């Protein structure tokens, strides 16, 4: 199955759906999830230092003979490594675990007060040296982005945030669009919250899809990159079967009414 790509930086295109690997820690789970994703047609894999599975992802890809240039790999710098003397060494350890000499996308995992701007300068160095084809941030609010844009040399290519029909973040979506920052939606299925909502079920029936596919398609309609995760092969396949239909204006209006500022993960809005 073919997955569309979005250009996030000069010469860097990212598949619009990737496999999220948060909380996929056991060897057999990573093996099964990545294997199912590759079989389904995924070529974008999202990991992080704190996930503890960078090396397991590398092994799963290696075991299947996947060439490095045929996959898009993203990882994230964990907050304990934001100090200037720790960021680059920690990234080098990530490269070693991933068995590669570059990543396609490198992110700061959270807008840590005082340290985030220093850490971004380290990412700019990594980017300049070719260690990361593109760099970005995660969990940054409009406030954090404005601060960063006032001090950076490289504009973040992406901002990876929790985004789904129950947490639509219209101000952040619009600001990132204005600044040319592509949004990545993690937890796009809200960990199963509200999957039985009558609006979702009605639209699923209308389009011959599942409620989960309607939620994922909503993210696509925002222009976002989508990072669902699953260990089950049928769901891994279902999660990319979202490009043969579109949500019309009436559908989007109904889904807009589901926004309830409901977070299923951490809340960065109060970070100064």
Strand content: 15-25%
Distance between the termini: 43 Å
The class by helix and strand makeup works out as alpha/beta
Order of helices and strands: EEEHEHEHEHEHEHEHHEHH
Ranges where pLDDT stays below 50 over 5 or more residues in a row are none
Quaternary structure of the protein: single chain
Rg over CA atoms, rounded to whole Å, is 18 Å
Q: Topology, pairings included?
A:
Layout (H helix, E strand, L loop, with lengths): L4 E5 L2 E4 L3 E2 L6 H14 L3 E3 L7 H10 L8 E6 L6 H15 L4 E6 L7 H13 L3 E7 L3 H8 L8 E5 L7 H10 L2 E5 L11 H10 L3 H11 L3 E3 L5 H6 L10 H8 L16
Parallel strand pairs: 3-4, 4-5, 5-6, 6-7, 7-8, 8-9, 9-10
Antiparallel strand pairs: 1-2
Helix pairs in contact: 1-2, 2-3, 7-8
Question: How does this structure look, described?
Answer:
The chain is of the alpha/beta class. The protein has a single domain (5-193, 219-241), classed as NADP-dependent oxidoreductase domain (TIM Barrel, Alpha-Beta Barrel), CATH 3.20.20. It has ten helices and ten strands. An eight-stranded parallel beta sheet has the order 3-4-5-6-7-8-9-10. Strands 1-2 form a two-stranded antiparallel sheet. Strand 3, helix 1 and strand 4 (44-46) form a beta-alpha-beta unit. Helix 1 crosses helix 2 (54-63), helix 2 (54-63) runs parallel beside helix 3 (84-98) and helix 7 (198-207) packs across helix 8 (211-221). The radius of gyration is 18 Å and the shape is globular. The protein starts with a strand and ends in a 16-residue tail after the last helix.
